[in-house]
Amino acid sequence: MFTPLPILIALAFAALPAEPAYAQPTSCRESTERPIALGDAWCGQPPEIRVGEGVVTVLRFDTPLVRAETTGPGSFRRVVDGELLILVPEEPVTDESRASLTVYFADGAVPTQATLHLVVATPARAERQVEIFRRARTAASLQRELRETQRTLQELREENARLRAAQARPGGLMGLWVSGVMGGAGVATRELLDVRRHARNSLVLRAGMTFRARSMLVVVGLKNPLGAKPWQVTGAALVGPDGAELKIARVWAPAAINPGDEMDILVETEPVEVAPRGPFTLTLWGEDGKRPVILGNIEFP
């Protein structure tokens, strides 16, 4: 008998230890499923799925499964129920580690099994839902992908319009007022004094400030240790205590941080009408999600 998805997820979490705040990012957007067609060409390599420590990843197949096995680094809790496979990494492993997942189909038709790669990513970049097609994709799946593509295009159009409008505005404090970012209350600030640093952070936090106007800004000064590789921020996530993720407008740093150097990283949210409850967890990652920096207990003024 088919088990409801919320119960499956609860079972997958049942034996896990308490999770840290950074392992809970959940986007406020409507969740979407990334489709994978097993018949597509993958340059001789199995398709990849991004998983993260403490994050539930749901794989939805178009054919019932009989079992699933994992090999390689890390340990994964697996729950199989018909066409669903629930995965939760149970122990921390090195970012970008790859484990193999082999699933066996219940109907006995060819192919009888399929292999995928599980790539360990930061919790913010882990995939929550993946749709996997052994047979030709359904019209409903193609329509969902089309809607997601149209939504992404609309966001790009809106961002392009904002950039064009910004070019015609003055800079400095005058620009803040004209744009409406700064109202009559000005810009409130707060120094970060009690930040929780994740033990696996690849860079060292030196100082930090938060700012609030219509949008919110986090500025963190990071130092790249001697002997490490240069680090360039490519993405960020801000997650509240209830798991809600603030929409990031932009992430900025002037250049890559070389070994032994310090630099400020700026993360700004979209305008927020109602002040969200904190504290927040800030996750920064470099190229391909490597060498993440996770900072908890981020408070805004």
UniProtKB/TrEMBL annotation:
Keyword hit for Secreted: no
Keywords: Coiled coil, Signal
A Pfam family: DUF2381
Coiled coil: 139-169
InterPro entries: Mxa_paralog_2268 (IPR011754)
Signal peptide: 1-23
NCBIfam families, per the entry: Myxococcus xanthus paralogous family TIGR02268
Protein name listed in UniProt: DUF2381 family protein
